[in-house]
Design goal:
Length: 456
């Protein structure tokens, strides 16, 4: 029986998790209004994921930095190339990973699919679905797996009892907002419960060297729900993005203690689960029978992966008094900057025209190397003159109209050549050592050069 201490009433901001001694209307930390709620907190004398008699009493001692073993951490292969890439090569033993995303985007499907692929003993704990519901989904993905165990439970103390009995290699929790601990007297999903349950799971993961993957809900703003400290506590934060009306899903790392946060994983949602997309350019470039104005191809990078993406622009006479500026997948302020450069440096009168910009495939791009493709697409639409489909662009545009160099341009050139493009436009200030390339590398220094070369 748990031995509880004195109960306390505390006030927490539901947006950022800041604690207050009393209620107030506005949170001092995040400046949000009416987000502070009262919670009853009760702490037991002992708080552990195991009984004290079974807990290992390991103590650490300081080491000289040169004495610390620097050998590479062994990782567990998930047999999913996209998931491995985003994590930095696989799952690190003893790590805690948090996966967030919109409702219905495919978070549970992704982790169930990975758990059914894994050759390790996996415990999939669900607090949202019954075992029969999960079984129905598993039969569409991989019905023959024998190393995946399904548990429907929300109480952490019961979950740890099953973990002790089963001794799994990997634990998956769906989701952290559904769990509750006896050590906290508040409802599931509250600030206190989320923090306490995560703390217990971290203690378990570090003491047993067992990796734990959590699914987390998100708010209407797209942020991980619960206290912000949740993201600080875990080792890796992954975001699963995409539009439920489209079949493509994108996996990004927002935080990764064991690898880069710039890598990108792309999946296609199918009836049998999520298919890994090894060549993203196949989904990001439209297939069309004829060349259309306003389309340009940009060579961009996501982490170490080169991507060819299609930029679409529509320029038309403003119907209403104020011209509209709209960008999907691209920074709207940067679009306004590029339009100002076109007007000032190249003489195009776009101030009285509507400009709409779209990055196909439903992805968001912040690589400045797509500036030149954006400018080319806008000019093409404005002149109603289609660009050749075998042209692509990789350069940044400066405020004075100069074409600036971008990083790893040779990798972009080789990717464009591999996909069959005949010409790539880059800055003349890039240092390029490639020789004997099939693709023509067109060097330009200012925006007027682009107008002369591609607009007839």
């Amino acid at each position: 029986m748990l031995n509880y201490g004195k109960s306390k009433n505390k006030f927490f901001c539901q947006n950022c998790g800041t604690q207050y001694a009393k209620w107030q209307g506005q949170c001092n930390a995040c400046k949000e209004w009416n987000t502070i709620v009262e919670e009853l907190v009760q702490k037991p004398e002992k708080s552990d994921w195991k009984t004290p008699s079974n807990t290992s009493k390991r103590t650490s001692k300081p080491l000289r930095i040169k004495e610390i073993d620097s050998s590479k951490e062994a990782r567990l292969d998930t047999l999913d190339a996209e998931f491995n890439r985003v994590l930095g090569g696989g799952i690190v033993p003893g790590s805690l990973t948090l996966l967030g995303g919109e409702p219905g985007i495919g978070k549970s499907t992704l982790l169930l699919q990975i758990s059914l692929k894994l050759p390790y003993k996996t415990l999939y704990v669900s607090g949202e679905e019954s075992q029969k519901q999960i079984k129905m989904r598993a039969e569409r993905i991989n019905p023959n797996n024998e190393s995946c165990y399904i548990l429907t439970e929300t109480k952490t103390q019961n979950i740890f009892k099953q973990i002790e009995a089963l001794e799994p290699d990997i634990v998956i929790i769906d989701s952290i907002q559904t769990l509750h601990s006896d050590y906290i007297e508040s409802s599931s999903g509250s600030i206190s419960q989320v923090k306490e349950c995560t703390t217990e799971l971290i203690k378990f993961a570090k003491e047993t060297n067992t990796p734990v993957i959590l699914i987390g809900h998100i708010t209407k703003d797209g942020n991980i729900a619960g206290p912000k400290i949740l993201e600080h506590m875990v080792d890796t934060v992954l975001q699963f993005e995409g539009d439920r009306n489209h079949v493509f899903r994108i996996l990004r790392a927002q935080k990764n203690r064991f690898g880069s946060t710039h890598e990108l994983g792309i999946y296609e949602m199918q009836g049998s689960g999520l298919r890994e997309v090894s060549n993203p350019s196949e989904i990001l470039i439209s297939k069309k029978d004829e060349e259309l104005s306003g389309n340009a191809i940009a060579a961009t990078l996501e982490g170490m992966r080169p991507l060819m993406i299609e930029v679409q622009a529509l320029v038309s006479t403003a119907v209403y008094g104020t011209p509209q500026r709209s960008a999907t997948g691209f920074n709207a302020k940067r679009l306004n900057m590029l339009l100002a450069v076109l007007e000032k440096r190249a003489g195009f009168r776009l101030g009285a025209k509507d400009v709409f910009l779209n990055i196909t495939g439903g992805i968001n791009v912040d690589d400045p190397a797509i500036d030149l493709a954006v400018v080319a697409a806008i000019l093409s639409s404005n002149e109603d003159d289609a660009l050749p489909s075998n042209y692509c662009f990789a350069a940044e545009v400066g405020l004075s109209g100069e074409i600036r160099p971008v990083q790893r341009v040779e990798q972009r050139i080789l990717e464009a050549e591999k996909l069959g493009f005949s010409t790539i436009f880059v800055s003349k200030y890039n240092k390029i050592s490639l020789k004997d390339t099939v693709i023509k590398v067109q060097l330009i220094s200012k925006i007027e050069d682009l107008v002369d070369l591609v607009i007839t």
